[in-house]
Amino acid sequence: MSLWRARLGPAAAATVTSAARGRLRSAVLPAASVHISSQRPLQYGWLAYMLGERASKKFSEYSKIFTVDGNLSSGKGKLAQHIADKLGMKYFPEADIHYQDRIAGDGTLLDERFNGFCNLERFYNDPKCADGHSYRLQAWLFGNRILQYSDALEHLLTTGQGVVLERSPYSDFVFLDAMFKQGYIHKRCVDHYKEIKEISICEFLPPHLVIYLDVPVPDVQKRLQEKGEPYEKKVSASYLQNIEDAYKKTFIPEMSETSEILHYTASEAEDVEKVIEDIEYLKFDKGPWLEQDDVSFHHLRLFFLVAIIRKATMLKLVTNGSG
């Protein structure tokens, strides 16, 4: 049984379908043209499926989701871009607090009042700020990673083109873990984060491949001092070490159950041709993607349809409020 049929079941699937139909009948469809992705207008729905549109027909060898992870300034973006270029995939740079702003409207970055009341500079300057800023920042970043991952999934199912992301909502917790161990946030923040993660990330399919770049903390600090933002140069070695530990002790073991894992040092990652060769040898023979079919992909795309309509409504509220 496919992951989505097992997860949704007939009743839940009917609920998603009913919600989508109800929205469409109420003439909200034009508003849904504000798409999750700025690259493609909304066209998919029940009619398209009935007329024969199937995601699997567009799939090729690299119709997959890859993520590149690692500590700060580890070279993730550079490697992700190279892999995407070599394999004809779409590159998604790391989602920041302005992800929504960058893909919607004219790309104008809104004030932090409309972006979680948080910013990275404030975090690095005062990570123990008493007003809860550190957790607010990480929760907002997690939300943006969720949005980006849904964009990536939708792009894959809509076009058949594979995607390469720099980090993902699956690895976001490494920062939360480091914050907690450094005393930047309370235990109740960790508990709240876990609750939110459990009811959100479960709706998605995990990446086919996770590539981890292993750069020692002293080297990370050196890179930050040479090329980082002024406020990034204040990050402590212990915080960076906590991030590395969370990756190696929790993230990689957990993801290895559903995704392929490739592990490289900084120097090894420089040899992009070798990385591509390693990818070509992978079997991709585990994880929930193997259980999927066009019916489950159809349900997933309908889920996106409902999310698009809700997001369009929220975007209008934010835009009107900022005006």
Order of helices and strands: HHEHEHHHEHHEHHEHHH
> How many distinct helices?
13
Beta-strand residue percentage: 5-15%
Radius of gyration: 20 Å
The shape is: globular
Low-pLDDT stretches are: 1-42, 317-323
Provide the helix percentage.
40-55%
By secondary-structure content and strand pairing, the structural class works out as: alpha/beta
Mean model confidence by pLDDT? 84
Question: Which strand order do you get reading across the main beta sheet?
Answer: 2-3-1-4-5
- Ends apart, CA distance between termini: 49 Å
The biggest beta sheet reads: 5 strands, parallel
Number of strands: 5
Brief rundown of the structure:
With 323 residues, the protein is of the alpha/beta class. 54% of the residues lie in helices and 8% in strands.
What characteristics describe this protein?
disordered N terminus; 13 helices; 5-stranded parallel sheet; 323 residues; alpha/beta; disordered C terminus; 5 strands
Can you walk through the features of this model?
There is one protein chain. The protein is α/β, with parallel strands linked by helices and 323 residues long. Helices cover 54% and strands 8% of the residues. The protein has 13 helices and 5 strands. The chain has helices at 3-25, 46-50, 76-87, 99-103, 120-125, 133-159, 173-182, 187-200, 217-227, 237-255, 266-269, 272-281, 294-322, and strands at residues 65-70, 90-92, 163-166, 209-214, 260-265. The protein has a 5-stranded parallel sheet, with helices on both faces. The longest helix has 29 residues, at 294-322. It is globular, with a radius of gyration of 20 Å. The relative contact order is 0.18.
